[in-house]
Amino acid sequence: MTVDGLISLRSNVGPQQTIERLKAELAASGLTVFAEIDHAAGAAVVGLELRPTTVLIFGNAKGGTPLMQAAQTIGIDLPLKALVWQDAAGDTWFSYNDPAWLAQRHGIAEQTKMVAANMSTMLAAVGKAAIAR
What we know:
Elements: E1 2-3, E2 6-10, H1 15-28, E3 32-38, H2 39-45, E4 53-59, H3 61-70, E5 80-86, E6 92-97, H4 99-105, H5 113-131
Antiparallel strand pairs: 1-2, 2-6, 3-4, 4-5, 5-6
Helix pairs in contact: 1-5, 4-5
């Protein structure tokens, strides 16, 4: 499912296993996980409930720098982020912004077409591996 550049893939495993697989796939692809934000844990600290909702922030300078050289404003969307979340039905999802859509958003789609396409292909492969049975 894709809405305004946001790609969401249903996972065949639970949230924690999806996160662990995603981390492993990112590392195998030469990407660094800079941060992990557990929104559900944050909600619990203030006495609120939230289904599993975790953001991973990741990337590498080799992929992101050419985009920022073309338009520094894309730095607001980089490093890349992935969201692993569980819906009300108990299904787990992996969501991310398509790098090609981000390039378009910042007006650099034509000049960064190959870089963005390569990043999109890599993220699709990482995502599919993370959500597979």
